[in-house]
Design goal:
Number of domains: 2
Distance between the termini: 41 Å
Strand content: 5-15%
Number of helices: 8
CATH superfamily of the largest domain: Cation efflux protein transmembrane domain
Shape: elongated
Helix content: over 70%
Largest sheet: 3 strands, mixed
Strand order of the largest sheet: 1-2-3
CATH topology of the largest domain: Alpha-lytic protease prodomain-like
Length: about 290
């Protein structure tokens, strides 16, 4: 990972960790004071943000390590692993508070709120949305999926705090509002965890190149070739963070020499590297008639 990405990752991670610890203390204190499972759940949601921020800091440090004998493509996939860990933490927090909220409804426990609850939750909404916007900004600057995952984590916390604020305003009229809010917040967190899993696991399992990339590469092949259109097929791409590896097969006339085939293939690989920043390996095939 280059210094530009490292700087953004560290800044976002430390800022998020510090602010979320403060928010956890404030919300947890208010939750205990007013006996609100929804506010306490929201507090733990904020603390889980601090944990994910620490994961981001650690994974950034690991991903900076250069390629070595055991990891020839570098260490940037640690960022995807970090995103999966964030997803696991989110789901765990959500499940625990879903269970707690359900128990509170069954036992018909309500909650009363005061001015401090309103002030703390309003501050939380504003701060968490600010952190979400900053994390999305760092994601756009770096392309690191773990920062995008952290941004959604912040935003889900802001949304859950907004729901708690609505509940505080309605709490005096409905005893069951606190338990219902706890369930709603847990569902929001579960959905956020699902989105994080979906976007992080797919690159690790392996993905097919998108059609636009294939079209672009085929165009390069035909523009570089001095023997007419070449048939490129069997595309595979391997994503290692900012480093990508592309492999595909290229069909040449049977009567062409190995030297000429290799010359064209090398020129194609160099142009793909220059224009797309993708390292490419081409498998040469021969056939009597070019397809």
């Amino acid at each position: 990972m280059d210094n530009h990405k490292t700087r953004f990752s560290y800044t976002e991670g430390w800022l998020s960790a510090g602010i979320n610890v403060v928010l956890f203390i404030l919300k947890y204190t208010v939750g205990i004071l007013y006996g609100s499972i929804a506010i306490i759940a929201d507090a733990w949601h904020s603390l889980s943000d601090s944990i994910t921020s620490i994961i981001i800091i650690l994974s950034t440090r690991i991903s900076k390590k250069p390629p070595d004998k055991e990891h020839p493509f570098g260490h940037e996939r640690i960022n995807l692993i970090a995103s999966i860990i964030i997803g696991v933490l989110l789901f765990t927090v959500a499940f625990n508070f879903f269970e707690s909220s359900l128990k509170k409804l069954i036992s018909k426990q309500g909650a009363t709120y005061g001015i401090w609850a309103i002030l703390v939750i309003i501050v939380s909404i504003l701060v968490k949305e600010g952190l979400a916007r900053y994390a999305f900004f760092t994601f756009r600057k770096t392309g690191l999926e773990m920062l995008k995952a952290d941004a959604w984590h912040h935003r889900s916390d802001a949304l859950s705090s907004l729901i708690v604020l609505i509940g505080i305003l309605l709490g005096r009229f409905f005893w069951w509002i606190d338990g219902i809010l706890g369930i709603i917040i847990s569902i929001i967190i579960m959905y956020t965890a699902y989105e994080v899993f979906k976007e992080s696991i797919s690159p690790i399992l392996g993905e097919s190149p998108d059609e636009e990339l294939i079209k672009y590469v085929k165009r390069i092949c035909n523009e570089v070739s001095d023997i007419g259109n070449l048939h490129a097929h069997h595309f595979h791409i391997h994503n290692y963070g900012t480093h990508k590896e592309l492999t595909f097969h290229l069909v040449f006339p049977k009567d062409m020499s190995i030297e000429d085939c290799h010359r064209i293939a090398t020129s194609i690989e160099k142009r793909i590297k220059k224009e797309l920043n993708i390292d490419t390996t081409i498998h040469l095939e021969s056939i009597d008639v070019i397809i």
